[in-house]
## 1
Amino acid sequence: MTLTEVARAIAMKQVSSHEVTRALLHRIAQWQPHLNGFMAIEAEAALKAAEQADAALAAGEVRGPLHGVPLAHKDMYYDAGKVVTCGSLIRRDYVATTTSTALQRLKDAGQVRLGALHMAEFAYGPTGHNSHYGPVRNPWNVAHITGGSSSGSGSAVAARLTFAALGSDTGGSIRMPANFCGVTGLKVTWGRISRAGAMPLSQSLDTVGPLAQTAEDCALLLALMAGPDPEDPTASAEPVADYVAATKGSLKGLKIGVPATFYVDDLDSEVARVLDETIAVLKREGADIVKVELPDQRQLQAASQLVLAVEAAAFHKRWLIERPQDYGAQVLMRLQNGLAVPAITYLEAMRWRGPALAAHHAATAGVDAVIAPVSPVPPPTIAESDVGGNANAPAVLQRLTLFTRPVNYLGLPSLVVPSGFTGSGLPVGMQLIGRAFDEATLLTIGAAFQRATDYHAKVPKLPS
């Protein structure tokens, strides 16, 4: 079942929260040795919470749209009284004293906590490697990466170990796992969802968002989390749309832009094939497909990396001085690089954002969304992308994030939908890039595509 379907089934008492939770825990026990997707599995507490949810429902108490639905989230969302490791040694025993706003809104809607999902150390890695706790593995082929940093979220949703999961996206960390694991992932407009109580990485790039089976599921979660928050002054008061209603819309009358360069250059042949097939489906469903000439995306990518490096280093400065030995080698190197960037260079990159966004708006004025690959290549193997064990790995990593970072720099929303498979059975997704605070249009397009295809419904087989 999708998140939307299981929430409805529990609400209508067709199945109990306890039955659903027990079934997921059984599946987690089967898959976890193969995937390493969970940081913590809280079976006893989850079953108890599910029983309480069932008792409440029997008494006529409905807590919200997620009443009794078991979920697990990336281990960087503070949950009062719970250990939140952030995928690190430094926070291995950190017990949160507050609960993140995004997580609290899902709890208020009735979710049951299954545990915590694995992630890249401090959310600073695009592959799913973690030198402290081992890599998360792709359920479609365990030799391959999941993408990061929301590696456990992508892997667990794909293997149907949770109906959905929170991730975070600073340079592609929701979109890459969604792409490589064959699930739907939504990177929201900067400020659309409060970041209070979520581990920071880069203050001007970080976004909170969901990974789930479908665009409809993402719409449900976005509707629950979006909106202003007194705990986060950067959370926007922009009106919250009816995102679930948006998923019922048609593609007729919508214009989708295909970039003339950059996102279509030097693509792996199978990624190029899936892009062409996706465009054909959108066109058949009524969308008008046009070419768009975007400004230089490599400049945006470089600026995004620079901003991320400086802001991450600033957040980690004290630990870099006091506990450098407790970082993994790759994360330590990236953080130290951030300390070496001159303040003037950082300020120039920040000041250029306004003109860059204006240029993007001018270039895309005639379209409702832009379609592009998430990555120019299918998921590489864990060995190919291991910086510690492969001399070519840095080049592999640089290429992975080529198509995601520009969106973060501009602060725009992007929805990834599963769009096909390689000949060897690995998922390929496409991202839809929208206007600021227009997640609704992206969800309309994504849901229409999913009504016309079944890639999102494919489920990987348990390794033997």
## 2
Amino acid sequence: MTTTYSALQIDTIPDRPRSVEIARRPEIRRAASPEGLRRGEPGYLRASLALLAAGLASFNALYCTQALMPTLTASLHASPAQAALTVSAATGVLAVSILPASVLSERFGRGRVIVASALAATLLGLLLPLAPGLGWLVAGRALQGLLVAGVPATAMAWLAQEIHPRDLPRAMGLYVAGNTVGGLLGRLIPSGVLQFAGWRLALGIDMAFALACAILIATVIPAERRFTPKRLRLSSELRTMAAQWRDRRLAGLFGVGFIFMGVFVSLYDFLGYRLNSTFGLPMSAIGLVFLLYLFGTLASAQAGRMVGHFGRDKALLVGAAMAIVGMPVIAAGQLWLMLPGVALFTYGFFTVHSVASGWVGALAPASRGEASGMYLACYYLGSSIIGYLSGHVMHAFGWWGLVGWLVALIGIGCLFAGSVSRASHRLQRLS
């Protein structure tokens, strides 16, 4: 590896032997790579592996009860809305914890927050199968949402801080892939175990896998080399967030995240009930439906290309259109039509999310951390609030009522997306 120096460092090095001596000192060597870890360095591989495991552990822990909901309804005599609380409690507390976790990471270090968050959330997960009833399970899931918040709040910022800009997209892609696969395994593992055991063992085995991933993070994550603690000022942070809400484009994107994530989680929360009651599928087969998440992985990879061809505003509306077109197909009474509808909706949702989250960062370059944190807070708050309300709609009006409710919400999401597009075009004309 070639050692590089800034102009100031070169001016202060009197001769070559002295420069060699300085280059061998760890504290100078850390400063000598100001742009971050490069692909091919051992630290880059360890960083990528650690953040891949972070996605696997955190998103597995976050959604570990979603595939169990029909079984929880039968075993714990809970309504669909009550069973949905095992997901909504975790995502709701996560939503309000993201910004505080992000602020704490600026003071104590992002790497420490990631490791502590992943280990604490997955260790708690091992206790969840011991819950004596639904109330205790929901309370434990709420605490788990609080503990896991440090990973999504800081992981992307940690990568941007420690990885060289040229190699950042690949590392970021691994982390996003870990998120998708972690969420997928959080559904597949418990639903697979349900084939031969109850929900308690299914949840325990899943959380044991998540804990193994968390231990891997703590083992391989490299020490932060470019972190500088910041003095936190609450008044300054609040002024920044208030200014973001006054920007119609940012506020609209926050609304897009809230609505579309709420619809997405609602659909997957209650899809299992439909597949079990109407089509008679066993829980192991219902779990395989979550493989349709892979269409989301494909959409995320293609979203950048779509933005390049059509622009952010049109790409956002195209994704929203895919989501709303998929809903009537999902409502069909034939399984062979329903599953392609879920795939189309999933592709559209992840297109919307990828475009919106990237657009938020582009609109707030001076306060990217706060803007991204606010977007994620709205995103997960939508998951919690709309997911819970959808349970009541399902209980009162059945599957058709739920689909109508979700279509109406997507319509509201499209209005938010349209407002962002109009505000963007207006500012372009003025400039």
